[in-house]
Amino acid sequence: MEGYGGGGGGGRKQESALASELAQVLSMVRELEARMDQDPPAAARELCGELANTVDRSIRIARSCCGCPPADSPPGHASDGNNNAQSRQVRVASVKDMAPLDDGLSWRKYGQKDILGAKYPRAYFRCTHRHSQGCLATKHVQRADADPLLYDVVYHGAHACVQAAHPSAEELRRELMHMHPGHAAGGGQDQDQEQQQSSSPRAPEVELDTAEQGLQLQSGLLDPMTPYAFAAPTPGDFFPLLSPTGAEWQMMRSSHASAGNGTDLVDHHQFQFDDLFTNAAEPFHWDLYAAN
DNA sequence: AAAATTTGACCGGG
DNA sequence: CCCGGTCAAATTTT
User: Fold this and answer.
1) A 220-259, residues with C-beta < 7 Å of strand B
2) A126 touches strand C (CB under 7 A)
3) Is the CB of A157 under 7 A from strand C?
4) Which residue positions does the secretion signal occupy (predicted)?
């Protein structure tokens, strides 16, 4: 529950966090540069995904530092209308890169349903600490019809659990390793597997299974959401990277003055790193819209 | 053995 | 009655 700088207060922690993220971006870019000549496809793609995630975090951090949180609700989307569900689109680079889906919190899947016009099923998750801490946060994840690398994630409710605010030491350690893949001090598990909660989730193998976030979905064979509970590879210390923690929610709420009945905010965020490489013009798209 | 996922049944709103 | 969301038992994974 520490406050992130919403509005003003600053964030020193965030500054350093931003620096770290940026440093990561730099090293990733270098590596990408290096790999560019050798094997272009796979490896590079994976890296791009990580890069995208890192940049995403950086942007978030920067925004919260600047006190310009939800400054983007361009087209008039009643951001404060009535719903409080927060949704975002997350794109993964490859099947192995589900970092974007990993919002740093542990979720437990409790259901999956086929949705009317959707091609892929929607997976339902609730906070793992629902019973132990009464955390009522939930989220739904669904692959976009067209692009298997894109996932729509909708969050409901604020997190009341502590994990949301305090990442474990292990998570931090992991994050560090992630940043410096060269020295694997102890185990190295960086990219490959780790599926559940504490690391980068990975996708199922190849066939189609069921649900969401997975691996190389580009072929469209992977499933959208799969077996994995996202975990928190990133230090939440900095702040809620991809998922709205209770604190962030409050922040957003107050800034949006989402009144109404509020309980659900919708923040639709679309990150397309792909374009970053294909169209130098628009690296990312941030959209906030209320919906639900 | 414990914890998480899979799935179909069940529920409530439109 | 259809559809989306949740429950819960069976099953799988750790």
Assistant:
1) 226-229
2) yes
3) no
4) none
Which of these, A86, A79, A80, lies nearest to A258 by C-alpha position? A80
Q: CA–CA separation, A66 vs A9, rounded Å?
A: 9
Backbone torsions φ then ψ of A201, nearest 5 degrees: -75, 160
Of A269, A232, A223, A284, residue with least CA distance to A51: A284
Confidence band for A4, pLDDT divided at 50, 70 and 90: very low
Q: Is the CB of A9 under 7 A from strand B?
A: no
Closest nucleotide (C1' vs CA) to A121 is C4
Query: Å between A180 CA and C2 C1'?
Result: 52
Q: What sign for the dihedral angle of Cα A202, A93, A61, A157?
A: negative
| DSSP conformation letters of A237-284 | TT--SSS--HHHHHHHHHHHT--TT-------EE--HHHHHH-SS---
CB A131 within 7 Å, strand B: no
Model pLDDT for residues A114-145, shown as the tens digit of each residue: 999 898 999 999 999 998 888 889 999 998 88
With both helix axes pointing from N to C terminus, report the angle between A169-179 and A12-37 in degrees, rounded to the nearest 10. Answer: 40
pTM over 0.85: no
Does residue A218 carry a pLDDT above 60? no
pLDDT tens readout for residues A39-86: 556 566 666 666 666 666 666 566 555 655 444 434 433 344 345 677
Task: Please say whether the beta carbons of A230 and A123 come within 8 A.
Answer: no
Residue A83's nearest CA partner among A17, A13, A131, A155 is: A155
Residue A129 contacts residue A62 (beta carbons within 8 Å): no
Which of residues 94 to 123 on A have a Cβ less than 7 angstroms from any strand B atom? 106-113, 123
DSSP A145: S
How far is the C-alpha of A43 from the C-alpha of A219, rounded, in Å?
Answer: 16
